[in-house]
Amino acid sequence: MDVNLALSPQAIAFARLDTKPKVLARMAQLLSSAYGLDEGEVLESLEAREALGSTGFGRGVAIPHCRSKDIRRPSLAVIRLDTPIDFAAADARPVSLVCGLVSPENAGATHLHALAAISRLTRDETMLQMLADAPDTDAAYALLTNQFLRTAA
């Protein structure tokens, strides 16, 4: 399955954030600046989705996601947290990797395929360890783009 997922080098950050609201705010900032979206709208949409139930996926990963009328294809941002935080994840483990996704408003199946691709990526223990060990955001970007290109091929 080919997921045409956008990933900009500007959409990757290593950060010291200590609460879920701060993580969501930083994610909205990353997504909006990397993909030309309205930061307030993205934050509101991420918060609304999070209010339905935690996007803490388990195994130290959260995948906050939303949709936007202003984007043409699913777009990803990634934050690696310096210190894991409580995200009310399904397995109660603190989160250290946050993969934010914004998809086009009417992208039903495409949005689900993008979430599934991120989910597969974050279930790979080797990949999680390589991301945790990446010395900088450029290295993390290279890891992620290589992984998504390999998956799409």
Task: Point out poorly predicted stretches.
Answer: none
How many separate structural domains? 1
Question: Helical segment tally?
Answer: 5
What is the H-and-E element order? EHHEEEEEHHH
Helical proportion?
A: 40-55%
Distance between the termini: 9 Å
**How much of the residues is beta strand, in percent?**
25-35%
CATH T-level fold name: Mannitol-specific EII, Chain A
- Structural class comes to alpha/beta
Protein name: PTS system nitrogen regulatory IIA component
Pfam families: PTS_EIIA_2 (PF00359)
Organism: Erythrobacter ramosus
InterPro entries: PTrfase/Anion_transptr, PTS_EIIA_type-2_dom, PTS_SugarTrans_NitroReg
Overview of the structural elements:
This is PTS system nitrogen regulatory IIA component. GO terms for molecular function: protein kinase activator activity. InterPro entries: PTrfase/Anion_transptr, PTS_EIIA_type-2_dom, PTS_SugarTrans_NitroReg. By secondary structure, this protein is of the alpha/beta class. It has one domain: Mannitol-specific EII, Chain A, CATH 3.40.930. The chain is built from 5 helices and 6 strands. A hairpin with a 2-residue loop joins β2 and β3. The chain is globular.
